[in-house]
């Protein structure tokens, strides 16, 4: 860390130098782990008052788990699931689903092949290393907000793939994870995703296709994260406090753990369930539901046992020009004279640009859209 007698200008310069040095290796955090670092470089050290702003609830409490079995065969089972989805989205912003229709073998291979990419040949990974998030379909790097001074660097590398509405050619994807990535994404976009949006629509008291007809399911971004074992996990994070910017997120994680959800001003550990998928409400869904559904702050703790591998899939348009002009605001059916809109209208493009501009700073991107 920078000594206290170093001027602020020198301190910023030193940080920028360290960031640039890390970026130029194109090896990410994995490169540092492979080099056997025993002390965290200063850019990774988070301020303790931010790390410990909320206490961690050390108990068996966790996010709701919802069984999707029989929702297409039994109207009573479907109604029961809709009520559970409604409760989870309104009170937690998170839930896990089981019996979701995607074989465990596919989930395990997805995790395994994303891990294989990150642990693969460096020269292969360098072919995908880039910082042009909003212009390319396939990007690998470390920390999308690496150069933002307000953010401490996270102990994480990521493979980003935009798959809809304008996806890459199959040959543009890393060969090591290409087949399962396309298979998994297809199952989310064309089966589980539509089912989830139907359930959420009905949970809001709307027709099943309401959110789909609004275009909420048209965009799809997948991020394959890799969190190496960290030498000083108590000083940093795998992913800083943040909410997600899209409509819905589907998270597949391995069994290492580390995901925490902020609930009643306490961090709740999300226990991995093999074969389950984690679903959470994003900022755009909170906005169009007029705050009825919650896009909740969450984070990932660093660990010393890793690596941890996860795959986050976001239902949200990412690349222009698709959906760039479509304006979203609180759904008319969910507002009234007694319940007026609490957010201004926005385009996904404008919200995403604001989101990427601020980085993972623990503040919801919706704050700048709130009507005072």
What does this entry look like structurally?
The chain is of the alpha+beta class and 372 residues long. The protein has a single domain, classed as B-lactam Antibiotic, Isopenicillin N Synthase, Chain (Jelly Rolls, Sandwich), CATH 2.60.120. 30% of the residues lie in helices and 20% in strands. It is built from 10 helices and 15 strands. The protein has helices at 8-25, 28-34, 48-51, 75-91, 104-118, 122-126, 178-203, 210-213, 283-288, 348-358; strands spanning 55-57, 65-67, 94-98, 138-141, 157-164, 220-227, 237-242, 248-253, 259-263, 266-269, 277-281, 298-301, 308-315, 327-328, 346-347. It has an 8-stranded mixed β-sheet with strand order 2-3-11-8-13-6-5-4. Strand 2 (65-67), helix 4 and strand 3 form a beta-alpha-beta unit. Helix 4 (75-91) packs across helix 7 and helix 5 (104-118) packs across helix 7 (178-203). The chain is globular, with a radius of gyration of 20 Å. The protein starts with 7 loop residues before the first helix and ends in a 14-residue tail after the last helix. The model is unreliable at 1-10 (pLDDT under 50).
């Amino acid at each position: 860390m920078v000594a206290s007698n170093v001027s602020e200008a020198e301190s910023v310069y030193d940080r920028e130098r360290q960031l640039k040095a890390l970026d130029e290796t194109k090896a990410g955090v994995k490169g540092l782990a492979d080099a056997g670092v025993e002390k965290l470089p200063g850019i990774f050290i988070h301020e303790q008052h931010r790390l410990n702003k909320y206490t961690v609830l050390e108990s068996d409490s966790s996010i709701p788990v919802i069984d999707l079995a029989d929702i297409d065969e039994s109207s009573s089972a479907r109604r029961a699931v809709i009520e559970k989805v409604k409760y989870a989205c309104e009170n937690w912003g998170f839930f896990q689903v089981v019996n979701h229709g995607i074989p465990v073998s596919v989930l395990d291979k997805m995790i395994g092949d994303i891990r294989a990419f990150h642990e693969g040949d460096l020269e292969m990974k360098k072919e995908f290393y880039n910082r042009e998030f909003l212009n390319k379909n396939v990007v690998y790097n470390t920390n999308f907000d690496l150069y933002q001074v307000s953010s401490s660097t996270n102990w994480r590398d990521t493979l980003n793939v935009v798959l809809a509405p304008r996806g890459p050619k199959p040959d543009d994807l890393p060969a090591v994870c290409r087949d399962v990535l396309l298979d998994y994404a297809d199952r989310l976009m064309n089966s589980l995703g539509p089912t989830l949006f139907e359930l959420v629509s009905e949970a809001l008291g709307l027709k099943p296709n309401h959110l789909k007809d609004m275009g909420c399911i048209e965009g799809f971004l997948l991020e394959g994260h890799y969190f190496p074992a960290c030498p000083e996990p108590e000083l940093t994070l795998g992913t800083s406090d943040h909410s997600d910017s899209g409509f819905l997120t589907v998270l597949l994680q391995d069994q290492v753990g580390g995901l925490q959800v902020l609930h009643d001003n306490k961090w709740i550990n999300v226990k991995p369930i093999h074969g389950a998928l984690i679903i959470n409400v994003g900022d755009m869904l909170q906005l169009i539901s007029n705050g009825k559904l919650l896009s909740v702050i969450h984070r990932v703790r660093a660990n010393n046992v890793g690596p941890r591998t996860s795959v986050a899939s976001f239902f949200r348009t990412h690349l222009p020009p698709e959906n760039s002009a479509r304006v979203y605001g609180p759904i008319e059916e969910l507002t009234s004279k007694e319940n007026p809109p609490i957010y201004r209208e926005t385009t996904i493009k404008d919200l995403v640009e604001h989101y990427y501009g601020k980085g993972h700073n623990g503040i919801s991107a919706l704050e700048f859209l709130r009507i005072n």
